Fold this sequence. Notes:
- The structure is a single chain.
- The chain is an alpha+beta fold.
- It has three domains: 26-146, Immunoglobulins (Immunoglobulin-like, Sandwich); 153-171 and 214-392, 3-Layer(aba) Sandwich (Rossmann fold), CATH 3.40.50; 180-213, no CATH class.
- 26% of the residues lie in helices and 39% in strands.
- It has seven helices and 21 strands.
- The chain has helices at residues 2-24, 153-167, 196-202, 232-252, 302-312, 319-332, 348-359, and strands spanning 29-35, 39-41, 45-54, 60-69, 73-75, 81-83, 87-95, 99-109, 113-125, 132-146, 173-184, 206-213, 217-222, 256-261, 263-266, 288-290, 294-297, 313-316, 337-342, 363-371, 383-388.
- The strands form five sheets. A six-stranded mixed β-sheet has the order 2-10-9-4-7-6. It has a six-stranded mixed β-sheet with strand order 17-14-13-19-20-21, with helices on both faces. It has a four-stranded antiparallel β-sheet with strand order 1-3-8-5, with no helix packed on it.
- Strand 9 (113-125) and strand 10 form a beta hairpin.
- Helix 4 (232-252) packs antiparallel against helix 5 (302-312) and helix 6 runs parallel beside helix 7.
- The relative contact order is 0.11.
- The model has no long low-confidence stretch (mean pLDDT 86).
Amino acid sequence: MKIVLAILILGLVYVLQRGLYQRYWNKGLKVSLGFDSGFLECGEDTVLKIEIENRKLLPLPVFHLKYTMDRSLLFSDNDNSTITDLNYRNDVFSILGNQRIIRKHVLRGGRRGVFYIPGCTVHVKDFFLVTTFAEQVNTDSKIYVFPKKITGKGYDDLMNGIMGEILVRRSLIPDNMSFRGIREYMITDSQRSINWKQTARRNDLMVNLYDYTMDREIRLLLNLDTHNMIEPAHLLEETISLTSSAARSFLRKKVGVSLKTNGRMKAPDDPDRFITNKPVSDKGSKSEIPCPEIGRGTDYSHLVTVDKILSAITSTSGSAEFLKMLDIEMKSSLSNVLYFVISPYYKEDLLEKLDRMERLGMNVMLIVPYYDKMGFEPTRRYMRGWEVKFDEI
């Protein structure tokens, strides 16, 4: 009789607690997960912060938080991961009543891209661990992994050579932000350069001297098309990295940088934007949009704007679209702008456009990323090569 009574009581308790959990398990439950920062450099670490708050007396003895993310975001701890085409995570918690838990995971950005955690699923068991309750939670967390920055002697030699060429161009102009000293006024000096305080002190007209800087603007023109079809994806990734690295080098020297490219990116309302980023391709989806043009900026924070666009590139419009871009640039034909073209494609139709730009008095420089096993011979004085190791693919 006692056993039967105990079973009845246990059954009653089970039914009551199941009813309580069914009605209240998600009441006062708050779940959030997001990245500590909105962006990071490729190869750097960030933190994924998970916060769970249970604002009620009812405990949640077994709490599973399941979410999916791109596998190129590398966890320092993979104990709760299943990695196939994506990284499937299953974090387990035990939460008391009126308790808040914060858990942090260290992640490393393995490659360039824009990565999302569109949502997560909460699975909770009742006190008897028999019944499971589930709910979908929208998070839409996003992080940019910026292109890998190129360093080393080869890159330094390339940029030093480029800087040296830029400095001797006719488009050099005084930099009013770089004061060098004063001297006596000459008839060829502008009245704007007169230093009136020093003039009054010395009783002679004195003028400010400024160092010279490069062109007011370096316009990065990025062509994501290749000269041949041998492993184009890796070469295009290196081209994007070179563009990002060049932008950083110029901005460090307080030179204005703008960017225009024939790259394409996923639209904000594209349902496929949550899918893992693939190598740059000429076969993008119809919902992809052209990358927006980035205007001139001189502050180092402008690099974040440039890198966000470069990180978002998923496909290319091809060389024909890039040639149209050059036609548009020739209509403006600005003499105080250096048109810094980065293109692994260097066939004659492109070179003819650049020749024409030079004849119009436009300052042009072409950097050609190429595989070492393919070789490269410049056929124009404005051409420079950037060697990419084929064996590192």
